[in-house]
């Protein structure tokens, strides 16, 4: 099958070139700079692992890393739960199935920054108005504490991405052969048993894909974070990506920010690859 | 199959057309440049103040009409935080502009090797006392001030009148506190939500501006002393605390999610609060919201013991000329800056179109139209000012270190002493 002749490489070259120019070369450059005292204008000397050893004691970075991990765990679970639930709803034989699919997918079409500002308005103004009208104190003062900031971000992300994950699950759900389900029905399995023993194992590949997507997006999230809370209050809802941008561009420590970015890259790569490896092992072939 | 082939063909044609168009575009551009560099001097300006982009471009066009042998291209990238990284990229990519902006001592240090001495310009002679101290290196003057800005407590004259408060009397903290309590007691009659709108979300309002008033005396109001200081004592921490507390306690809440646009537009412009801590730069926003309110506002000073009746006034930005250009380019850049700040046409534009508070002598200041700028200028002219030292803070210290620690205090996550100590520790570690 694999005839890697000239045309193979010819067709591949535009992509390879683009990938090399925008991903691989900057990655190498960046790693190189993380060992220097680069300030964006000039790098005067090599400082070895100084940036990296400094980073271990940097509470701002560690706090943001911990916040990001908490956030990722919660959003990955919720996203997959809602994604699969929505997919199950719209694959039923409902009249409105197509309409619902569109509606559920819609939030994904709005850019992250704009969504952040829309939800900021909802959390701050709409929530507090509703809270005032109904006398629920818990709806007031959203985004002004760390907890509400955290849940604000979770709600926003889940609302935005659930539709996208839904599409992936739909694709796999529709691939499940009807015979299997019918056979199970004849054997007397109720709907929960059918879901647990047939549907669930067969959409496992979708889990691999969705987990990978949700993990890496929630780890790398920046624009929603920026527009919704901007790290506030007191930098407690600041995620790693944002912390890195601040180090590099606001505090002007380009090399140090670069070192953080390299560490962050390694963390995301390791987590995502381990996850894919384990999920792959658990998939069943038909 | 036929349709597939057709599709491919169409796609191919599109790709070719696109490629041709792209080539065509670049050809044209280089053609222009060639024509320009014949006998003309062309200079590039890269500036970061989006608020006056259009007016500035109009002025540049006017200059080019008067001086046909100079062609100027202006590039604007805005909003403070974005400007510096882009400027760095320009320098890194070898497209360094001829005229660019620097913010203060840190900017001078970062770009020192690129800065031209501007002491032979007319504008440098005309610059007001004290506006050049941050950009001086020995005898050399490395930047020219944009304008002056000042801040304090901006108040709504109508509300003050109805409450029977004379703003001119509010000099000490005690006076201010009494007035705030009066206003707070009359909230219903005055139809306001609260006395203040305190934007706790904005670290710069707390850490840069409010703190500056109380830190400035410690450094003799000299930004260079702050820039060189390895630590700070924060002698006036108590005064700073009560000023922050006063604003936070009598503010619409919750303060920690209140931001700049809510403060200025939603609360102050709609007359839902009586006072906000801001500067003359908010005038255009208020004017856009409500012309009538905008004409009825003034500034009262932030109460600082020993400096009653003074407001913090300073220069937010400087023009710098790149010394890497040819002699003609450098001269053309200097001529343009001189023309902008010292010729009659330039002066008119600076005052009336840019709506700047001039940082230079020889302006007809009766022409300053907005009430805030006028008041700031009067304070400045009378010498009743407190120097801006926050451009001498360690990079981002005001916003990220002090600002976020005070936010922690406002959110009951730390005591005030803990917040100040943490901020001082960050200052020290940045200056090691």
UniProtKB/TrEMBL annotation, chain A:
Report the CDD domains cross-referenced here: TM_PBP2
According to Swiss-Prot or TrEMBL, what is its membrane topology? Multi-pass membrane protein
What subcellular compartments does it reside in? Cell membrane
Alphabetical keyword list: Cell membrane, Membrane, Transmembrane, Transmembrane helix, Transport
Q: Which domain of life is it from?
A: Bacteria
Q: Which GO terms describe its cellular component?
A: plasma membrane
- Report the main location listed first in the record: membrane
| All copies of domain ABC transmembrane type-1, residue ranges | 65-277
Q: Which residues cross the membrane?
A: 7-29, 71-91, 103-128, 148-172, 198-219, 261-278
GO BP term, pick one: transmembrane transport
- Any one Pfam family here would be BPD_transp_1
- Which named protein is this? Raffinose/stachyose/melibiose transport system permease protein
UniProtKB/TrEMBL annotation, chain B:
SUPFAM superfamilies named among the record's database cross-references: Periplasmic binding protein-like II (SSF53850)
- Write down the InterPro entries for this protein, in alphabetical order: Bact_solute-bd_prot1, SBP, SBP_1_CS
Supply the Pfam families for this chain.
SBP_bac_8
Q: Does the keyword Protein biosynthesis apply?
A: no
Keywords associated with the record: Cell membrane, Lipoprotein, Membrane, Palmitate, Signal, Transport
Q: Which GO terms describe its biological process?
A: transmembrane transport
Q: Where is the signal peptide?
A: 1-21
The similarity annotation says: Belongs to the bacterial solute-binding protein 1 family.
Protein's UniProt name: Raffinose/stachyose/melibiose transport system substrate-binding protein
């Amino acid at each position: 099958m694999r005839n890697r002749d000239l045309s193979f490489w010819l067709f591949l070259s535009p992509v390879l070139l683009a990938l090399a120019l925008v991903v691989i070369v900057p990655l190498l450059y960046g790693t190189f700079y993380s060992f220097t005292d680069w300030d964006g204008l000039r790098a005067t000397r090599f400082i070895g692992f100084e940036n990296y050893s400094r980073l271990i004691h940097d509470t701002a970075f560690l706090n943001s890393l911990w916040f990001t991990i908490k956030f990722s765990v919660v959003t990955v679970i919720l996203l997959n739960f809602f994604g699969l639930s929505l997919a199950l709803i719209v694959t039923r034989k409902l009249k409105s199935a197509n309409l619902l699919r569109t509606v559920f997918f819609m939030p994904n079409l709005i850019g992250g920054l704009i969504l952040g500002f829309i939800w900021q308005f909802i959390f701050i103004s709409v929530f507090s108005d509703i809270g005032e009208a109904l006398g629920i104190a818990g709806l007031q003062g959203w985004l002004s504490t760390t907890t509400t900031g955290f849940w604000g971000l979770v709600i926003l992300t889940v609302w935005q991405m659930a539709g996208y994950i839904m599409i992936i699950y739909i694709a796999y759900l529709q691939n499940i052969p009807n015979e299997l389900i019918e056979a199970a029905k004849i054997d007397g399995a109720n709907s929960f048993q059918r879901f647990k023993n047939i549907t669930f194992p067969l959409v496992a590949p979708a889990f691999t894909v969705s987990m990978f997507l949700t993990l890496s997006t929630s780890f790398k999230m920046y624009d929603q974070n920026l527009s919704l809370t901007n790290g506030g209050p007191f930098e407690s809802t600041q995620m790693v990506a944002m912390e890195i941008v601040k180090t590099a561009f606001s505090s002007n420590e380009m090399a140090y920010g670069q070192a953080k970015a390299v560490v962050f890259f390694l963390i995301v790569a390791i987590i995502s690859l381990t996850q894919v490896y384990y999920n792959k092992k658990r998939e069943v072939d038909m | 199959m036929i349709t597939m082939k057709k599709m491919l063909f169409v796609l191919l044609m599109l790709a070719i057309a696109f490629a041709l168009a792209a080539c065509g575009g670049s050809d044209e551009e280089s053609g222009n440049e060639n024509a320009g560099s014949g006998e003309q001097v062309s200079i590039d300006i890269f500036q970061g103040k989006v608020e006056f982009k259009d007016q500035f471009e109009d002025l540049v066009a006017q200059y080019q009409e008067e001086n046909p042998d100079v062609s100027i291209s202006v590039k604007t990238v805005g909003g403070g935080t974005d400007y510096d990284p882009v400027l760095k990229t320009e320098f890194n990519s070898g497209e360094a502009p001829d005229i660019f902006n620097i913010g203060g001592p840190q900017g001078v240090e970062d770009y020192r090797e690129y800065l031209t001495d501007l002491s032979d310009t007319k504008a440098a002679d005309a610059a007001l006392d004290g506006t050049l101290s941050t950009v001086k290196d020995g005898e050399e003057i490395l930047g020219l001030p944009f304008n002056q800005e000042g801040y304090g407590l901006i108040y709504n004259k109508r509300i003050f009148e109805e409450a029977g408060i004379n703003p001119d009397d509010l000099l000490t903290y005690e006076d201010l506190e009494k007035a705030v309590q009066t206003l707070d007691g009359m909230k219903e009659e005055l139809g306001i939500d609260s006395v203040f709108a305190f934007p706790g979300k904005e670290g710069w309002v707390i850490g840069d501006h409010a703190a500056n008033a109380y830190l400035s005396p410690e450094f003799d109001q000299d930004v260079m002393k702050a820039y060189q200081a390895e630590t700070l004592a924060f002698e006036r921490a108590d005064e700073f605390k009560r000023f922050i507390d006063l604003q936070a306690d009598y503010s619409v809440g919750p303060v920690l999610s209140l931001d700049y646009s809510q403060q200025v537009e939603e609360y102050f412009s709609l007359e839902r609060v009586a006072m906000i801590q801001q500067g003359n730069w908010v005038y255009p926003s208020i004017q856009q919201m409500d012309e009538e309110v905008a004409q009825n506002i003034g500034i009262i000073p932030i109460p600082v013991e020993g400096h009653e009746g003074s407001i913090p006034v300073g220069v937010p930005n400087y023009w710098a000329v790149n010394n890497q250009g040819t002699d003609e380019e450098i001269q053309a850049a200097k001529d343009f800056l001189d023309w902008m700040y010292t010729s009659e046409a330039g002066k008119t534009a600076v005052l009336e179109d840019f709506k700047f508070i001039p940082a230079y002598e020889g302006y007809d200041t009766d022409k300053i139209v907005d009430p805030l700028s006028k008041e700031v200028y009067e304070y400045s002219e009378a010498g009743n000012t407190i120097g801006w030292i926050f451009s001498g803070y360690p990079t981002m210290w005001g916003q990220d270190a002090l600002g976020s620690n005070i936010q922690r205090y406002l959110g009951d996550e730390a005591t005030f002493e803990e917040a100040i100590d943490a901020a001082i520790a960050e200052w020290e570690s940045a200056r090691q």
